[in-house]
Amino acid sequence: MRIPKRLKEIVYTEQGRLIIDFSVIAFVAVIIFRNFIFSGGWPSGGDTLGWVAREYLFGHDFRWLNLWRQYSFGFVEGINSIDFFLMLIHSVCQSGAVTVKAFMFFTFLAAGFSMYGFAYHYTRNNLAALSASLVYMLNHWFFTQFTEGHLGLLFGYALAPLLFLLLSRALKHGRLKDLTIFAVVLAICLTGFNPLSVVIYMLFLALFTVFYLVIPQSSFHFWNRTKRVLKVFAFSGAIFLFLSAFYILPFVNNARAPFYSAEFSYVLEETAGISYENLLDGFVLRGSEQWGYFYIVDVTSEVSLQIIPVSVILVAIFLMAYSTVFVKTDRYTLFFLVACLISIFLAKGANPPYGNIFVWSWFNIPHFAVFRAASRFAMITAFSHAFFISVLVSLLTGYISKTRSSQAKETDLEPNFRTSKGVDEKQFFSSNGYAQSPCLKSAEYTLKRTEQQSATRN
Fold first, then answer.
1. Is residue 112 within 8 Å of residue 29, measured between CB atoms?
2. What is the pLDDT of residues 271-292, one digit of tens each?
3. pTM of the complete model
4. Are residues 51 and 120 in the same domain?
5. d(Cα 301, Cα 287) in Å, to the nearest integer?
6. Do 395 and 427 share a structural domain?
7. 100 and 43 in contact (C-beta within 8 Å)?
8. Which domain holds residue 428?
C-alpha cells in the first residue's frame, strides 16, 4: 500500500505532472514516427533526399564549417547553425539518412515542448499547456512540412515558441540571465532558420515588442517599458553579434547566396499552387504542399477523416477559443489575435479577398517576391491557435474548479441532525453523506460542553 500511495503523492506534484505531460508528448511522437524509428529505410519527402546527401557530404570529410557548400548549385552559402545540431547527431549515428530521421523526430518533440513552455508561462495550467502543445504538433500544415522534408522550416517552427517565451521573460524581468539566454537562442534562430522563417518570425517578434510598449499590463510606465526594451535589445544584440560572427562576417563581405539579393524573385504565378485559395483553408491550417508524396497519396486532401466534417469542427473550436479575447484581454491575447488575422491574410497570397494588396507588395516591397509559398505564414496561425486553445482550456478548468469549490462550501455549512436509538448526535454531513472535518465536530462538542456547564451552574 505504501508504493501506490507514494506514487500518488508524486503524481500530484508539479514535477510529476510535468513528467506525465512530457510523456504524453513523447508517446504521440513515437506513434507518429514509429516507421522512422523502427525501420532502416530512407525517409521519404520532397527535399529529404537533398538533406540526406548534404549530411553525407558534410560528414564524409568533416566539411560542416566550409563556406563553399558542395551540395548547392555552385554558389556560395553561409554556414548555417542548423548544421551544428546535424553534426552532433551524425557524429553518433554516422549515417546521413539516420541523421535526417533523428533530426525530424527531435524537431517534432521540440515543437511540443517549446509550445508547452510558452503556454504554461502564460496560463500556469498544465492541462492548458498540454492542449496547446497537441494543437501545435498535430495540425495538417505541420504534417505536410514533414512529408515535404523541409527541415529548415521545421527547425524554425519548433523553436519559435521558445524564442517568444525567452523574449517575454527578458522584457518582464530584465535580468542578466534572461537576456543572455534570449541572445543565445536568437543567434541560433537567425543563423539556423530557413530565410523565409527568419523574415516571418522577426516581423512578428517586432510586433510582439510593439504590443509590449503600447499596451500596459501593470504599473510599469511607458518610459520604463521603453528603457527595458532598449536594454534587452542592446545587451542581447551585442551577444548576438558576437555569437553570429561566423555568419555575419562572410555576409557583410558579400560571400552570400544570391537569393539574399533584392533583385532575386520568383514569378508571381508560382504562388497559385502553394497559397491558400480562401481564408477558411488558412484558418483550419490545411496543408497545401504535396510534392513529397505526390505519386503515393495526396496529403492535402486524402489524409483526413473523410466521414467527419473536420473543417467544420476545427472552425467551431478555434472560434470558441478566439472568443476568449472578450473575457481575457491583455497584450498577449490582442497580439495573437492580430497575428492570426495578418498571417491568414498573407497566407492566401494573391487570391481574394483583397489579393491586389499581395500583388502590389510583390512588385514594390524589397525581398517580398521570395514568398512563393505564401501558405507558410500558417506557422504564425498555428502558433496563435495553440495559444488561444490554452486560454480556453485554462478558463474552462478555472470555472469548473471555482464552481466545485463554491458548491463544497455551501454543503459544508448545511447541518444534518440524526438520531440513533434514542441517542441524539449532532453531526455535519456533506451532500454525498460523508462526515465533515473533525474541526466542526470539535467545535460542536465544545459548544455542548459549554451549555452543560452553564446549566450545571444555574
1. yes
2. 887 899 899 999 999 988 877 6
3. 0.86
4. yes
5. 8
6. no
7. yes
8. 418-457
